[in-house]
Amino acid sequence: MSDIQYLTPLEAVGFVRSGDTIVVQGSTSVPMVLLRALTERASELRDVKLISGFAIYPEDAPYAKKEYIDSFRALSIFVPNYLRHAMREGVADTIPCFLGEVPFLFRSGQVPVDVAFLNVSEPDADGYCTYGISADIAFSGAECAKTVIAQVNKYMPRTFGDPVIHVSQITAMCRGDEPLQEVPTPVPNEIESKIGRYIAEQIPDGATLQIGVGGIPNAVINALGNHKHLGLHTEAITDGVLPLIEKGVIDNSLKALYPGKSVGSLILGSRHLYDHVDGNPDFVIRDVAWTNDPQNIRQNPKAMAINSAVEIDLTGQICADSIGETIISGVGGQHDFMYGAALSEGGKCFIAMPSMTDKGQSKIVSHLRPGAGVVTTRFQTQYVVTEQGIVYLRNLPLADRAKALISIAHPSVREELEREAVRRFGIGFLRLKN
Q1: Taking burial as the number of CB atoms within 10 A of a residue's CB, which of 42, 65, 170, 357 is the most buried?
Q2: Which is catalytic among the residues 101, 143, 192, 235?
Q3: Under CATH, which number does the domain 9-175 receive?
Q4: DSSP 177-214
Q5: 325 classed as catalytic
Q6: Which CATH number fits domain 190-433: 1.10.3720.10, 2.40.110.10, 3.40.1080.20, 3.40.50.1100?
Q7: Which residues contact 160 (CB under 8 A, 6 or more apart)?
Q8: Mean pLDDT of residues grouped by 10 in the chain (434 residues)?
Q9: Is 322 helix (H, G, I), strand (E, B) or coil?
């Protein structure tokens, strides 16, 4: 459309007022042009709250600095990497919540939204832009906002599904042609590959996958090459799935929801991936309230939830969002998909991790570190996988769980863990050793 009036970034963010709450689009499409311009207004503004979700950007958030503490309050529901430094300094804070419930907080008014900052594609001939690779919390944020401010970006792909907005619904638009952030596809190491093979052996043909980001998820994908009729219903769509789609391993033919379509709430990876989904109707991007709804997840047959952990204690409690008291991420969709997959007919839930950290510390521990958060409770944990093996905890008594987990801990710590198990579970554990 040729009659659109584009403002400068500083003019566009001029609609923000003191006391406003802003929802900021995330994934690899952070509207940083708008955030930089907003920071220029720091001296004029007071108590502006900015809420971010999962996001990746190579620079720290410009507004989350000590000198702007009276102007801006940086909040997140998943501690994006650009806020971690601010979190350590106490300049930023996090709101603990399940990712799939965030849109409800907006829509119910429990978290009032005044403004949404978006990074959108160029409008088509009818005036429609798409949020491209990031619906997640941005879709509901824009739906609830009184003011929508958009950075129009020629690099943003056009995608199908929820994240579509007409220019008439946008209060102010500016140009912001910044290339989207790219996330390299991790090459699994030997330990991760072994874990991936253990998980792949448990995944049947016709399963629907929720698979995350990192070496272990890619190791699982690499081990699924001979499977048939897999489906994809996930939170994040990454480069790793493309080879399986191209080979026809992922054909989505047996899914109950959106058969024939790969479904996610955000896309992050390489420019090749962004180009692949651009205008591709085989990919559907939905509001995170929909993708992460356990009642939707359970409708797909044999839903497989594959997630990771920072550490796990001998009873099966999973910490995935912090290292002790230091918050490093959020619950994200782990709980949503673990619960939904557990309800799915033939569904399975996996927690996968190396047995040791890079610093040589066991990730299977007698007790979680002081201050550690429990993301997945001991009541939900099913399969736990390390390079040492795979165990199934569901329905096991506590002492039996401890024995199972010790069997997949690194051999160098098993004796110490056994002593802790004896101290904690007494004769109940000792009888299992005989």
Answers
A1: 170
A2: 235
A3: 3.40.1080.10
A4: -PPPP----PPP-HHHHHHHHHHHHHPPTT-EEEE-SS
A5: no
A6: 3.40.1080.20
A7: 280, 281, 283, 284, 285
A8: 83 97 93 96 96 89 94 90 88 90 94 96 94 91 96 96 93 95 88 95 96 85 94 93 94 96 94 95 95 96 93 94 83 89 96 94 94 89 96 93 95 93 81 71
A9: strand
